[in-house]
Amino acid sequence: MKSKRRIVFILLTVLLLVAISACMMVIGRGHTVYFDNKTLEGYEGQDYKAFERIVVSVKGEEVAKLGKRERGMSIWIGQNFKMVLEITENKGDEPVVKEISINLPYDMDGIVINLPAYLAGLPEEAWLSEFVPAVTEEPVEEDPTIGDEFGLDGDLTGDLVGDI
């Protein structure tokens, strides 16, 4: 009797874990999406200039106001990313509003979207890249006051030879 009850509890636990896994697959995973308003230079021999200003809204909330050479970001759960862009191409122009929907890749956590390249209709490899944080190493300074514990500072031969 006890073994049947134990098996039922194990099966219920496994079913619960499968149900949680299925829910997580439907909900999707989280992504950090970065937006660049930077000129893309030399792609197939052509430059794609940055816009004067781009205002990015996600889920009805303004998340970034980008001037030239600026980056903004947003957190998104799921694979179907949607944003609204208010684009001012040149100084003094009227802004143009565009609604964008992008399928995000499963295998990237930090996703960088170059907006001028995307809006120019270039292929995905031109406007999509993975964010890789820059690693900076600070120089290690040696402390000149540190010697060995006997105060010899590494010179063992000079004075000892004459004392024998």
Question: What's a quick, concise take on this entry?
Answer:
The protein has three helices and ten strands, in the order αβββββββββααβ. With 164 residues, the chain is of the alpha+beta class. The chain has a domain at 31-130: Immunoglobulin-like (Sandwich), CATH 2.60.40.
What shape does the CA trace take? extended
User: What portion of residues is helical?
Assistant: 10-25%
- β-strand number: 10
Q: In the CATH classification, which architecture of the domain at 31-130 applies?
A: Sandwich
pLDDT averaged over residues: 82
- Main-sheet strand order equals 6-1-9-10
Give the low-pLDDT segments. Answer: none
Q: What name does CATH use for the topology of the domain at 31-130?
A: Immunoglobulin-like
User: Quick one: CATH class of the domain at 31-130?
Assistant: Mainly Beta
SSE string, helix = H, strand = E? HEEEEEEEEEHHE
The portion of residues forming beta strands comes to 35-45%
Radius of gyration: 29 Å
**End-to-end distance:** 90 Å
Structural class: alpha+beta
Number of helices: 3
Biggest sheet layout: 4 strands, mixed
